[in-house]
Each structure stands twice: as C-alpha cells, then as structure tokens.
Amino acid sequence: MHAKPPPHAKPPAQPQPQPHRTRTRTRTRVTAVAAAAFAAALTPATLAYAYPTATVSPSTVAPGGRVALNVDGCGTSTARVTSTAFGEVRLTPGNLNTTNLFGSATVFRNAFTGTHRVVFECGGPGGERVTIPLQVISGAARGGTGGSIGSMSPGQIAAGGALAAGALGTGVWLLRRRSAG
C-alpha cells in the first residue's frame, strides 16, 4: 500500500522552460570562439619557428631598382642586412612589435646580373643569420607580384586566416544578436 502524502505537502516543482538560457549559452560559446580566434591571430607566427624568417621583395629586380627588406623573429630591435647588390642597410621595427623589422635598399646601378646573396643578421654582426637570394636582371624588373606573395610564410598565412575567421564570427554574432533583440 502507498501512503498518501499529507494534505499540506506540495507536489514536486516542475522545471519551467527558460529560453533565455539557450541564447545565453550560445552567446557564451560564440564569444569564446571569437576570443580564441582573436588570441590566435595576435600570437606571433614566429613562435612556430626556431629561427628568424626574412623576405626580399621583389625577389627579381633591375639595377637601380628598390627592394623591401623584412626579417621577423629576431628578438632584437635592430638587424643588419648586407649584399653585393646594395651594400649595407639597418632594419628597425615598423611598430612596437620589435620582432618584425623593416627597411629598404636601392640596388646599385652597376650591380652585376645574376644571383646576389642578401644576408640578414639579427642585432648586427655576429647575430643570428638568414640568407635570401636576390636576382638582378638586365632591363626592367619582372612585373606582377614581384615575388611578394611567394615569400609569405605559413605562419603569416595562418595568422591572417585566423584574424579573418575571428572577424567573420564576430560579425555573424553581432548580426544575430541585433536581429534577436
């Protein structure tokens, strides 16, 4: 036999559906994903490499032409670049991020045609070195991208992709938030 509950006892409470909890969880998840993508985009791409990476753009140039020089991951605030094509150039940070150093050089008008070594030295003489080839050709420099696209590292591509994904996710979240409110 079952005992009857006393007349003053309340039946067990039924949970009430709370639709705002689902939206709150979704917002929390979207915010967490956007924050993770943003953090990944801010992480220096050089953490994946044990050595600095350097670029010379364009990688093919005529005598008298200008080249952009970039080294990333030195861990110093200056770098020295030397080449038989243009002599010596000092690189400095482009902003507060001292791991990315920039500069430019003008190729000598009497530079010989062929491949020149461009040597990047982090912090100056005796620092960690990276060597990149520079092709000097007679006449006008090669058109198109000038080798600038081919010189992107996988870390730079990943950082750009993560930043774009984070921006897209944040935009979707803001549009959904606006339409729900």
SSE layout:
Blueprint (H helix, E strand, L loop, with lengths): L18 H24 L10 E5 L2 E2 L4 E7 L6 E5 L3 E7 L6 E7 L7 E9 L6 E8 L17 H27 L1
Parallel strand pairs: 2-8
Antiparallel strand pairs: 1-3, 3-6, 4-5, 4-7, 5-6, 7-8
List the strand order in the largest sheet: 1-3-6-5-4-7-8-2
- The helix/strand order is HEEEEEEEEH
Q: Helical proportion?
A: 25-40%
Cα end-to-end separation: 54 Å
C-alpha Rg (nearest Å): 29 Å
Uncertain spans = 45-49, 141-149
How many helices? The count is 2
Describe the largest sheet: 8 strands, mixed
Mean pLDDT, to the nearest integer, reads 75
Give the strand content: 25-35%
Helix and strand composition category: alpha+beta
From the spread of the alpha carbons, the general shape counts as elongated
Number of strands: 8
